[in-house]
Amino acid sequence: MNAGGIMIDIPQVITIASTDASGGAGINADLKTFHNQGVYAATIVVGLTAQNTYGVQDQYPIPAKFILEEFKSIADDLDIKAAKTGALLDEVRVHAVAQGWQSHNLGKLIIDPVMVAKGGSHLLSDTAIDTLKTELIPLAFLITPNLPEAEILVGRSLKTDQDIIHAAMTIQNMGVKNVLIKGGHRADLKNEFADYILYADGSSEWLTMPGIKTKRTHGTGDTLSSFITANLAKGYDLKDIMPVAKKFTYEAIRQTINVGHGHGPLNHWVAITMGTEDNK
Ligand SMILES: Nc1ncnc2c1ncn2[C@@H]1O[C@H](COP(=O)(O)OP(=O)(O)OP(=O)(O)O)[C@@H](O)[C@H]1O
Ligand SMILES: Cc1ncc(COP(=O)(O)O)c(N)n1
């Protein structure tokens, strides 16, 4: 009921992750990307971090019981179409999120398996990796590890393109439908580099782009996975989203903003929308 006004339907998404006090990564980057893409965003806060563009100074995990209450509050009211996870900190939090998801399915699940921040701080304990593999990954529509995260998930080093292709298959066999292995860590090594995606139907592609020589890449993975989450919620197909998600992240890195003195944050104000002439 909205007498005299109008009612607008809007796709609803959620980020299940940790905050970044400096605003460049984590839940903060997710919310800015969601807003940019015109979706309504809710949050399940799993942890808080005291961090800046130099690194993570401290972490504060939210109790598992409270995380489950957050799940219930959202599921009792909102109509979430897609959810993404970010830094989950440890085994207890990963288990709580898997438990929350099984009780309250919130649409398509996208896992960004954040393990180590750009400054080198651990945002997922080593003991959480098995819980991630056995409890959370089998529930997901898409997982988006960067190269070091993919190496940890498969337990071997990934040097060649062939290694990456095999790793994506190994991860898909853990029960997740689609696997994106991000190549940002090779961006300094080559002028052109690529992300690799293995789709649910067995097809795959290399998404190639020029590497930008910069250290202002705080929150690149969050930005990419949030863009994908927003547009899955809008009903777009993953294969159509991927090139545009890459373009959004690329422009958000390229059109840099002057914030912080370490690994600076991205520009979440760039205008790139699915379905426009520019992106066909
Ligand atoms: N220097 C760069 N130039 C161009 N694209 C980049 C660069 N760095 C990262 N990207 C792109 O940004 C996206 C995120 O990649 P990356 O490998 O940095 O993820 P990530 O390490 O998980 O990010 P983060 O942990 O910072 O959130 C990928 O699509 C990647 O190709
Ligand atoms: C709360 C939180 N989530 C995710 C990241 C990863 O981003 P990056 O590797 O660019 O620091 C982060 N630093 N902090």
Automatic annotation (TrEMBL):
Tell me the ranges covered by the Pyridoxamine kinase/Phosphomethylpyrimidine kinase domain, including all copies: 20-267
What catalytic reaction does the record list? 4-amino-5-hydroxymethyl-2-methylpyrimidine + ATP = 4-amino-2-methyl-5-(phosphooxymethyl)pyrimidine + ADP + H(+); 4-amino-2-methyl-5-(phosphooxymethyl)pyrimidine + ATP = 4-amino-2-methyl-5-(diphosphooxymethyl)pyrimidine + ADP
Task: Give one GO biological process term.
Answer: thiamine biosynthetic process
Listed InterPro entries: HMP/HMP-P_kinase_dom, PM/HMP-P_kinase-1, Ribokinase-like
What does the record give under GO molecular function?
ATP binding; hydroxymethylpyrimidine kinase activity; phosphomethylpyrimidine kinase activity
List UniProt keywords, sorted A-Z.
ATP-binding, Kinase, Nucleotide-binding, Thiamine biosynthesis, Transferase
For this record, an example GO cellular component is:
cytosol
What Pfam families does the database record attribute to this sequence? Answer: Phos_pyr_kin
EC code: 2.7.1.49, 2.7.4.7
> What is its pathway?
Cofactor biosynthesis; thiamine diphosphate biosynthesis; 4-amino-2-methyl-5-diphosphomethylpyrimidine from 5-amino-1-(5-phospho-D-ribosyl)imidazole: step 2/3; Cofactor biosynthesis; thiamine diphosphate biosynthesis; 4-amino-2-methyl-5-diphosphomethylpyrimidine from 5-amino-1-(5-phospho-D-ribosyl)imidazole: step 3/3
Name the domain of life.
Bacteria
NCBIfam families associated with the record: HMP-P_kinase
What family name appears in the similarity comment? Belongs to the ThiD family.
Q: What is the protein's given name?
A: Hydroxymethylpyrimidine/phosphomethylpyrimidine kinase
Identify the species of origin: Weissella paramesenteroides ATCC 33313
